[in-house]
Amino acid sequence: MKLSLFSLTAVVALSVLLTPASISALPAPSNGVVSFNNHRVVRINVRNEAELKALTDNQDSLGFDYFTHEKVIGAHIDIRIPPQSFSKFQALKLDYSTLVENLQTVLDQEKHENDQYQQVYAAADTWFQGYHSYADHQSWLSTQIANNPGKASKISAGKSFQSRDQAGIKIGSGPNHVVFHGTQHAREWISTMVVEYLIDQLLKGTDSRVAGYLQKYTFHIIPIMNPDGFVITQTSDRMHRKNAQSNGGCLGTDTNRNWGFKWNTGGSSSNPCADDYMGPSAFSSPEATNIAAYLRSLPKVVSYIDFHSYSQLWMVPYGYTGTRPGTYTYMNGLAQKAAAALRAVNGVSFTTGDIYNTIYPASGSSTDYAYSIGVTAPFAVELRDTGRYGFSLPAAQILPSGTETWAAFAAILDNIQV
């Protein structure tokens, strides 16, 4: 199924970047799709400690949904405000601007565009011109495996909470293993497409280096790490982030706060309704548990990449602490080479550094866990863009994102110490 090219204006596109923190409290219409009628999206400029305290003290009672999580003085924070809370929000006298007056109008427009462009998608040369349904992603993956019997084979990390397959593909025969995936956070559709673009390049791309890569490395690739959440984004809540586990009446665990290394040590929430809810215990989510077990099953994993969006960052451990690991210089050196190669393609700049200091504290993350079990070069990548379109990146940017990420990925493969 081909979805729309998301031809919204910059402000309108940004406005769909809601998080699911208070979704469970919203009334759902009879068709099961969450309504955001008269919900506003605003950008707050945090000028001092008093304003930051006013915001955080009232976030639960007023039902704020955070789009951005960097709650520091001098930053801007984008949030969604339900209509019943707006007057109370205004009474806080924060410095803000309104990005959209009625979020549901934006979502209705997006759905209308999607409905207009739906069609069966089969030809490989048009795959990267649009976004696709979960079923079509599975069919595409199966086709790649069937069409490349000498290069590719099917893999699975296991079953999701709702028993969907965490399906993937294995390419190459080298002794050095590379594992990567997309869509740990369900709404980040561009990560699925970019991971599939890397698959496409490894199987039939024209890069002369590929034959050498397939002899040096074995690639284990899972385009959709969180299939249940991905299906939710396509059926009921486009901006769902977490998996499909039920937690205290709220839907989902943030699997990227649930990994079993330094779990619950900061940068995650114990509130089941929060979009960064860490779960009741480490590895309580099957999705994270399965990928971790798959990583441990391989003899020599030289790199692991967890692709996300958005922010244009190529990051390394740690997320749980600002203290950098002993091999930080080596890992960040690889990240810098990746960012330079990426920028040379389309002029897009990515920032490198450790997760904690580059984006925000985050414990229980996949990248920290991979490093803890001996993966020598794990990365957390935030793809395009920096907030203009955010999670609703136009389909016209899929191919440019893919080509620049391939250049970055090749730079990693060319420079890893094995």
Task: List key phrases describing it.
418 residues; alpha/beta; Alpha-Beta Plaits; Aminopeptidase; 2 domains; 8-stranded mixed β-sheet; 4-stranded antiparallel β-sheet; 14 strands; 34% helix; globular; disordered N terminus
Please give a structural write-up:
The protein is of the alpha/beta class and 418 residues long. It has two domains: 10-115, Metallocarboxypeptidase-like (Alpha-Beta Plaits), CATH 3.30.70; 125-415, Zn peptidases (Aminopeptidase, 3-Layer(aba) Sandwich), CATH 3.40.630. Helix content is 34%, strand content 18%. The protein has 13 helices and 14 strands. The protein has helices spanning 10-14, 49-58, 86-91, 103-117, 134-147, 189-204, 210-216, 227-235, 286-297, 328-346, 355-358, 366-372, 398-415, and strands at residues 40-45, 65-66, 76-81, 95-100, 152-159, 165-172, 176-181, 217-222, 246-247, 250-251, 301-309, 313-316, 351-354, 377-383. An eight-stranded mixed β-sheet has the order 5-6-8-7-11-14-12-13, sandwiched between helices. A four-stranded antiparallel β-sheet has the order 2-3-1-4. Strands 9-10 form a two-stranded antiparallel ribbon. β5 and β6 (165-172) form a beta hairpin. α10 (328-346) runs antiparallel to α13. The longest helix is centred in the C-terminal third of the chain and has 19 residues, at 328-346. The two termini are 41 Å apart. Residues 1-30 and 120-124 have low confidence and may be disordered.
